[in-house]
Design goal:
Layout (H helix, E strand, L loop, with lengths): L3 H8 L3 H8 L7 H14 L5 H6 L6 E6 L5 H16 L3 E6 L3 H13 L4 E4 L7 H7 L4 E4 L10 E4 L1 H14 L5 E6 L4 H16 L8 E5 L4 H13 L6 E4 L2 H13 L9 E5 L3 H5 L5 E4 L2 H18 L8 E4 L2 E3 L11
Parallel strand pairs: 1-2, 1-3, 3-4, 4-5, 5-11, 6-7, 6-8, 8-9, 9-10
Antiparallel strand pairs: 10-12
Length: 336
């Protein structure tokens, strides 16, 4: 096994200089760092992580906490962050947690491994243990926001996105528009249903005429039951707007399996733009999110914070807009 002594001999520096150069110690010149790293690569040297941690350094791990990897949104985020980490010489450590207890356990493991930082899609109510641990771990929130975790976040302008999708249906003459989405416990759920309500009010539609079905945002079963109930209603809607990817997929599958054409059965506006949405029926009208760009911006911001050695909780909030993609699943309302 190649050791720091071997690297030092070839690079003609001391063993301590090798350790400092590989750790990017500012006391070592850039020229020496470059030479030591080149020699280490040539010899196949692998740094001893426990030794680095004993010296008070951090690992090269960047944690990514997601609630669900089956969601196309989250898979895209993981891939984009992995690419960013590779470019910066870091390694992405993926954790899945959709409840506060699992979230706390994974955060504890990352802190124990001396992770350099973390990108987190937070649960509804992070535990006190999570909040205490995150005070010592540079982090940024992605998509969802929990005020207790901190002020740094990157997300979609959820309220404006759903408002635009709802207005599209209203401008086509629809008034019995159903909204199917996540509960208001999560910031995303609150903002999205708020966008629906604002658009409906702008067209003179009161709360008693709004049709809202709220439930688990990542549950296909919830989506299937929601569309079944809506279509079985004697005063069923002429259009439906969906506010999560998994529920969109469930509703499209339900309609397809029963041979219910859209927009003939009802107009549908989905959420996200997975490849299959282009091919479904006449093509799905949907809200496309620049999720890869968002994830990349989030990662680059976190790396900048690490590079400048930011120690306080930075107050930074960035949102990007969605784009309404109009395809064949929406049409003017023909019901009286």
């Amino acid at each position: 096994m190649v050791t720091t002594k071997d690297v030092a001999e070839v690079a003609k520096v001391s063993v301590s200089t090798v350790g400092r150069a590989l750790a990017d110690d500012p006391r070592i010149s850039e020229q020496t760092k470059t030479r030591v790293k080149q020699v280490a690569t040539q010899l196949g040297y692998v740094e001893n992580l426990p030794a680095r941690l004993m010296r008070g350094g951090r690992s090269n791990l960047i944690g990514l906490m997601l609630p669900d990897i089956r969601n196309a949104f989250y898979a895209t985020i993981a891939e984009a962050l992995s690419d960013c980490c590779s470019a910066k010489g870091h390694q992405l450590a993926l954790s899945l947690a959709n409840d506060p207890q699992t979230e706390a356990r994974h955060i504890k493991e990352l802190v124990s491994a001396r992770a350099a930082g973390m990108v987190i899609v937070p649960s509804v109510h992070p535990t006190r243990e999570s909040l205490a641990l995150l005070k010592n771990l540079p982090h940024v929130q992605l998509l969802r926001r929990a005020a207790s975790i901190g002020a740094a976040s990157f997300g979609i302008n959820d309220e404006a996105s759903i408002h635009e999708g709802t207005r599209h249906l209203l401008e086509l003459g629809h008034r019995r528009i159903a909204y199917v989405g996540g509960t208001e416990e999560l910031s995303t759920g609150r903002d999205r249903v708020a966008g629906y309500r604002r658009a409906m009010r702008e067209f003179g539609i009161g709360a008693d005429q709004m049709i809202e079905i709220l439930g688990p945002a990542s549950s296909p079963e919830f989506g299937t039951q929601a569309i079944a109930d809506l279509l079985a209603s004697p005063d069923r809607p002429t259009a439906v707007l969906v506010s999560t990817v998994r529920i969109t997929q469930a509703i499209l599958e339900y309609l397809h399996e029963r041979g219910m054409a859209s927009p003939e059965t009802l107009s549908v506006v989905g959420f996200g733009d997975s490849p299959e949405f282009k091919w479904w029926g006449p093509g799905l009208t949907t809200l496309r999110m620049p999720i890869e760009e968002l994830a990349t911006s989030c990662a680059l911001w976190l790396f900048h914070q690490l590079e400048v050695g930011a120690t306080t909780d930075p107050k930074y909030h960035s949102t990007v807009p969605a784009t309404l993609i109009v395809r064949g699943s929406t049409a003017p309302c023909v019901s009286p």
